Amino acid sequence: MKVAMSREQTPHRNGGSPNQPGVSAPFTASDLPIDDEGRIYHLQVGPGDIAPDILLVGDPGRAELIGDGFLGDIELAHEHRGLATVTGTARSTGRQATIISPLRTTVTTSGMGPPSLEIVANELVALNEIDLNTRKRKAEYQRLHIIRVGSSGSLQASTALGTPIITTYAIGLDNTGLFYEAPYPDETCERLERELGRLFTGSMNADSRFHGKIRPYVSRAEPNVVRALVEASARLGVNTKQGLTVSAPGFFLPQGRPISRMEPSIPDVDKVLGEFDPHVDGQCIENMEMETSFLTHFLGGLGYWAGAICPAIANRREDTFTCTYQEAMEDAIRVALLALASLRSDRAQPMLADGMQA
Fold first, then answer.
1. The dihedral of CA 168, 201, 256, 161: what is its sign?
2. How confident is the model at residue 17 (pLDDT cuts 50, 70, 90)?
3. 294-315 average pLDDT score
4. With 90 as the cut, is the pLDDT of residue 95 above it?
5. CA distances from 340 to 97, 102, 163, 226, 344 (A)
6. Domain containing 240 — which CATH number?
7. pTM (two decimals)
8. 3 state SS for the chain
9. Could you tell me which residues are beta bridge partners of residue 219?
10. pLDDT level of residue 25 (50, 70, 90 thresholds)
11. What is the rounded end-to-end Cα distance, in angstroms, of the chain?
């Protein structure tokens, strides 16, 4: 799937507008760091090392596990700055009943939280869109499909530990996404931002230093990715739930874990969000983690397809946690790989950078 680009665009600093090919000067060395071997700086991988179908995980150990257990014909296995990247071929879901066509796949580490993910996501996009030799954006490139597979905490008492949750919309509590002017993908995102802004302000003490200053942004998982994940889970017999995901900028107080001696600015933020009715097809805010909102906001704004499937390894309403979630994680990996294969076999028309079909 190639992304066709139009050159009828006003030049933007160092390489054209964010969605368009470079029509001015190449990207500078300080804007786009490349090492002395021609590799992008943080991932330390080069052109051709990354497949357009990508699993994104937070734990570098999980990236290595997927490489060892789910990919064959390994082309690349590299680690730098704690970011493990493996590229190989996914030949099957791991169950004899469902065999998929061989799919060149990359699994890479996002690290923990939106700031780390912001670096990795930008470098994946740069490797796809920019010629590192000329430092100019290519005229066309493939559409990326990226699915996050990670752990999360459930906000609903009815969700059993180990249940993989497929994200439909993502609520970002971080400010990383606020630096990227992605348009609203639909009216639901715009409405939820207004409602959640009021909810957060009303849930804070009036004398809080940050009263009225914490305002979530909302992004949407690509509907085609959601559909592919739902269909793949049905084919594999994996029981999943669909719902909204909250991405927090940290693990403890930003997710309502009051283990420090400091008072929270939003008391019981996990309960506040879990009880909120988003009015989205009968869904709830199902889970809380730290990466999905920026992933779907950033990649969706660029016309790429992104989504997430994250098993719940804690239940915040029941105050339970499991360390034995490996089987649930492997089920989620199989579902994500089958979904990627389904998406890549889609013969839809090439799309423009704004997400429209050509």
1. negative
2. very low
3. 97
4. no
5. 18, 11, 20, 11, 6
6. 3.40.50.1580
7. 0.90
8. CEEECCCCCCCCCCCCCCCCCCCCCCCCCCCCCECCCCCECCCCCCCCCCCCEEEEECCHHHHHHHHHHHCEEEEEEEEECCEEEEEEEECCCCCCCCCCCCEEEEEEECCCCHHHHHHHHHHHHHHHHEECCCCEECCEEECCEEEEECCEEECCCCCCCCCEEEEEEEEECCCHHHHCCCCCCCHHHHHHHHHHHHHHHHHCCCCCCCCCCCCCEEEECCHHHHHHHHHHHHHHCCCCEEEEEEECCCCCHHHCCCCCCCCCCCCCHHHHHHHCCCCECCECEEEEECCHHHHHHHHHHCCCEEEEEEEEEEECCCCEECCCCHHHHHHHHHHHHHHHHHHHCCCCCCEECCCCEC
9. 170
10. confident
11. 12
Please report, as a single letter, which amino acid is at residue 232. A
Evaluate whether residue 22 is within a structural domain: no
Give residue-wise pLDDT tens across range 41-89. 999 999 899 999 999 999 999 999 999 999 999 999 999 999 999 999 9
The tokens for 71 are: 């990919």
pLDDT at residue number 142: 93
- Strand partners for 130: 137
Q: How many Å is the Cα radius of gyration of the chain?
A: 20
Evaluate whether residue 16 is within a structural domain.
Answer: no
Q: How many domains would you assign to the chain?
A: 1
Q: Is there a contact between 271 and 153 (Cβ–Cβ < 8 Å)?
A: no
Q: pLDDT tens digit string along 142-192?
A: 999 999 999 999 999 999 999 999 999 999 999 999 999 999 999 999 999
Is 182 a domain residue?
yes
Mapping DSSP onto H, E and C, the string for 74-110 reads EEEEEEECCEEEEEEEECCCCCCCCCCCCEEEEEEEC
Distance CA 333, CA 311 (A): 10
Please list, in sequence order, all residues whose beta carbon lies within 8 angstroms of the beta carbon of residue 84, skipping any fewer than 6 positions away. Answer: 60, 61, 63, 64, 77, 78, 108, 109
Does 249 reside within a domain? yes
Token pair belonging to 197: 């802004």
Has residue 345 got a pLDDT over 90? no
146: containing domain? 34-352
